[in-house]
Amino acid sequence: MRSKLFSMTVLVGSLLACGGSSSSSDSSLCSDLQSALDGFSTKAAPCGAQFTSPITGATCNSHLPNCNAADKAALESFATCMKNVPTCSTATVQAWGTQVQSCLSDLQPVSSACGGQ
Questions:
Q1: String of DSSP letters for the chain
Q2: For residue 6, what pLDDT band results from cuts at 50, 70 and 90?
Q3: How far is 109 from 107, CA to CA, in rounded Å?
Q4: Average of pLDDT values for 46-73?
Q5: CA atoms of 35 and 41, how far apart (whole Å)
Q6: CA distances from residue 109 to 20, 72, 95 in whole angstroms, order as listed
Q7: Separation of alpha carbons 38 and 105, rounded Å
Q8: Model-level pTM?
Q9: How confident is the model over 74-87, as pLDDT tens digits?
Q10: Structural domain boundaries of the chain?
Q11: What is the C-alpha to C-alpha distance for residues 93 and 79, in angstroms, rounded to an integer?
């Protein structure tokens, strides 16, 4: 589980690793991403998983303009998925981890210009 959380931190952080200027729709997407990841931190805690979001509003807003429409759609899908992840419990940790992994798969189509792998 910890390796999945580490992978997510690295992947999401690298997605927004390039600079640029932002628009209001970018700000909305950044807000959604930050909200989803901040909420995830609370949801992961009951299973002993510590997660700190690599995204802040300022860093996201300055990096997101390098992402195309498909990238932004994938990031929004990821944010929505992460918001829907329930709070982890020791009884559901395996299913919970699978759901988190499913959310991470939403990031696969993100282009290299946007920081994708």
A1: -HHHHHHHHHHHHHHT-S-----HHHHHHHHHHHHHHHHHHHHHGGGT-----S--HHHHHHHGGGS-HHHHHHHHHHHHHHHHPPPP-TTTHHHHHHHHHHHHHTTTT--GGGT--
A2: very low
A3: 6
A4: 81
A5: 10
A6: 21, 10, 24
A7: 19
A8: 0.77
A9: 999 999 999 999 99
A10: 2-114
A11: 20
For the record, the structure tokens of 108 come out as 């696969």
Radius of gyration of the chain from Cα atoms? 14
**Cβ proximity of 86 and 103 under 8 Å:** no
Residue 101 CA, distance from chain mean position: 11
For residue 39, the number of C-alpha atoms closer than 13 Å in the C-beta half-sphere is 16
